[in-house]
Amino acid sequence: MFTIGGTDINIHKFLGAENPAEGEGTADQPTYDVVKETNIQDLLFLENRDRKYDPDVYSMRGIYNVQDIDFDLSQFGLFLSNDTLMLTIHINSSVKTLGRKIMPGDVIELPHLKDEYALNDYSIALKRFYVVEDVNRAAEGFSPTWYPHLYRLKLKQIYDGQEYNEILDLPAEEGSTDTLRDLLSTYEKEMQISNAVVAQAEADAPKSGYDISHYYTVSTNDDGSVSLQTADNEDIDASNINRNADEIVSRPEREGYTGYLVGTGNAAPNGAPFGFGIAFPRNNEDGDYFLRTDFLPNRMFRYDGQRWVKINDDIRMTLSNTLERQTQKSSFINNTKTSEISGETVEERQSLSKALRPRADN
What we know:
By secondary structure, the protein is α+β, with helices and mostly antiparallel strands. It has helices at 2-5, 91-98, 165-168, 180-184, 187-204, 238-249, 328-333; strands at 7-20, 32-34, 51-64, 71-72, 79-80, 85-90, 107-109, 129-137, 150-157, 275-277, 289-292, 299-303, 308-313, 338-341, 344-347. It contains seven helices and 15 strands. It is elongated, with a radius of gyration of 34 Å.
């Protein structure tokens, strides 16, 4: 049945996960050895990320039902409802070929599903790889004596992930400088799309909160009245209007707008000139503004004749997660500090699972 009605499949045998060998190498450049395929690399997340595959490719026969790939439109968006293959193989033949039973982590290539007519400028047929997710005994494989003879494999297409680096780094064909990753991976295109989305978002909303720098703030007196001088009185000195307007109106004691994330400490109210530095200047005049850059976030002060009074903090920040943001949020997310766990120096911002890896001798 398998010889006549089946198809050839190529199997990349999963050997096990790579782990730093105890007492060898350094923290930056550890040496690796291969543990058994039944061991788990990361006991915290129960996954094997650094997988090692046999350089030899094994061939055997398998059978599966060919079906159309349909989209499920019953929910929001497009979902593939039958993108999983159920492949049947013979138990004894597979064990004789691989040297063990087939297991989750093995990668299967289906040569008959190559795409020779790719729309890109590829001169190489695109291959199709699937990873084994589950192995069970097929119901149709039980004999009249109740003994099983067939395995039923659940297969899913592989992706450009850390788990399949050894397979995707293989040459696309003999003598080619292109790798399978260059032909099959969508990483570069997805990164271009992601970067374009981020760039458009930064153009639409460059900073968090509300921009009030283009609003004009009117200075008020202690009783809340507006500090404005008008020329409706006959005896008013017009020269005082310009002088008082410059001293009072254009240099308010506080921002006239309050709300969520409206602080713009990197600019004085009404666009007034200001100095900046890590220490206050000595020669000050009433109404001077000064930005202290040694504060995190930066803080704007106004001199009232006797002391420097806080105006606001520069709490508005770029929404992208970059190291350039001088705020507590940036330093908390982009934590570059290191800690020593189990004798190994690790960065605090990385997963603790690296320090909790099972050792090769466990």
